[in-house]
Amino acid sequence: MSNSFKIMCVNAGSSSIKFKLYEMDSKASAAKTIKEKSAFMKVLCSGLVERIGHEDAIFTIKKPGGYKNSKTLPIANHDEGVKLVLNGLIEEKVIASLEDINGVGNRVVQGGKYFSDSALFNQDTYNKIKELIPLDPLHAEAHLTCYDAFKKALPQVGEVAVFDTAYHQSMEPKEFMYAIPYDWYEKYGVRRYGAHGTSHKYLAEYAKEQYFADKEHCNIITCHVGSGASLAAIKDGKVIATSMGLTPLAGVMMGTRTGDIDPSCMPYLCKCTGKSADEIYDIYNHKSGILGISGISNDTRDVEAAFESGNERAKLAIEMYSQRIADYIMMYYGKLGHVDMIVCSAGVFENAPLYRSEAFKLVSEALGVKIDEARNQEFRLGKEGIISTDDSKIPVCVIPTDEELMIALDTARILGL
Q: To the nearest whole percent, how much of the chain has pLDDT over 90?
């Protein structure tokens, strides 16, 4: 690419670093639509550092064309993980030197009330993310640790924080407030923040550009349904409601998370089991959802296989999962008044026709949504397309999400590249 630059996109977890390196032509910034912008971008490599802190950590790097190299080795911390990534880029001849990297975009889960857009990762941004650690202890510390590691390795390179919560900041107080003493909101920031905002933004903008370019007003329900899952009601590009809450535990049932649950369950279960609130909360997050109900797995493919063989708990898990998603679709239809499109995305709703079919059956009579099963089977595994029938009152579309592309675009925009 002529007049190009390179952006590293980073998604840090407590024991992992997921990364993708883009080369972008400067024309990408001037292009109007996401599809046009992506035409001036190419992925040079992607990869994952996992099991950081263990002797048998794994570093994997992939390049276009199917190339993949994995190795198992001790990785003590994120500093070592970042060095491994950067050295790997040179060893694999993806870049000639570290000076080739022009910007680093960091996915940050929790931006609290502070950020309604991506932001330059400076000291002020750092301090605010640090302040928000109690709202997201698992991710926030990892984001800061990874930022520090990249800053140490690439001191002259600008970094940007891209917040999962930013896109949801357009919600009104009636949507994001909880009915608790108001000073708990003022003092402790207890409210609905949502998550997956970068994905919801991509899906809404892409759907509008590709399917409703000439339509002035457009209402879309976006369904980011993977192991973690959230839905959003989007009116003219602005989120008016989203399913996740103070943390990603709320909303629909997920792979290992409860989704919405009566708060009274917590003290009751503490008394019944003798477990602490922290122990029950951990079970809510990691041993509930599809895993908890099916007793089989948090992987929807395993549960689908058990369902097909007649397993009753797998059947119940799929019924509950589908019902919770249908409930939110119905609620968001009511909030929006009319819906121009329902978008399916993320691991499960991009790839698993059974789960889409089961969920949309439950809204068929009320909303006039009809799924074409041949199309439903066709559009999966990265394939975009309408899966509803031609006479469906609301079109249902599968759109593979691309959070890293949005991170790269925001990083270039904030850094002025």
A: 78
Q: CA-to-CA distance for 357 and 321, rounded, in angstroms?
A: 12
For the residues 101-123, what does the mean pLDDT come to? 93
Output the DSSP codes for 286-355: HS-HHHHHHSS-S-HHHHHHHHHTT-HHHHHHHHHHHHHHHHHHHHHHHHHSS-SEEEEEHHHHHH-HHH
Structural tokens at position 41: 């971008």
**Lowest mean pLDDT across 58-67, 112-121, 138-147, 159-168:** 138-147
Question: Does the pLDDT of residue 1 top 60, yes or no?
Answer: no
β-sheet bridge partners, residue 47 = 19, 61
Rounded distance between C-alpha atoms, residue 80 and residue 150, angstroms: 10
pLDDT at 275 (0 to 100): 97
Give the angle 250-254-259 at the CA atoms, nearest 5°.
Answer: 25
Contact of 321 with 355, CB cutoff 8 Å: yes
> What's this model's pTM, rounded to 2 decimal places?
0.91
**230 closest CA partner among 252, 211, 213, 247:** 252
Cα(24)–Cα(406) distance, integer angstroms: 12
Q: Give the integer Cα–Cα distance in Å for 117 and 409.
A: 13
Residues marked active site are found at 164
By DSSP bridging, strand 341-345 and strand 396-398 are parallel
Average confidence (pLDDT) over 337-351: 95
CA distances from 94 to 28, 43, 89, 404 (A): 21, 10, 5, 18
